[in-house]
Amino acid sequence: MLDLNTFANGALAEKANTELQRVIENIADPNTSFKSKRKVTTDIISHIDGVAASSASVLPMISKRIIMPANEVMMIHHAMTGAWENAKQLRKSADDVERISKAMCQHYLDRAGDKMTEEKL
Hints:
By secondary structure, the protein is α/β, with parallel strands linked by helices. It folds into 3 domains: 1-42; 44-74, no CATH class; 77-121, no CATH class. It is 40% helix and 10% strand. The radius of gyration is 17 Å and the shape is globular.
């Protein structure tokens, strides 16, 4: 296993972190066009070892390649939250969860192409 923090004096880790930060910032903005600003200039290969559950399943969606043995699991679902709030706060939380869910789902749909519809997802 290659340690990106020590290999090439950390240059690869810095490049990967910069690219991931750019993608994360664009994911956070639901108005960002995935066709223009969500492009990653570094080839990311995701290795799924064990379980890629919940938000951990989003990064592989923007990877160039996903390596995932048949006995591993990727769990995708709409965003969820738990809340102990008043009515106004609950409405805001529901809006936030819906916005996050739409952004996450768009990554799954982009990756699946014509094999998946929003209704089926």
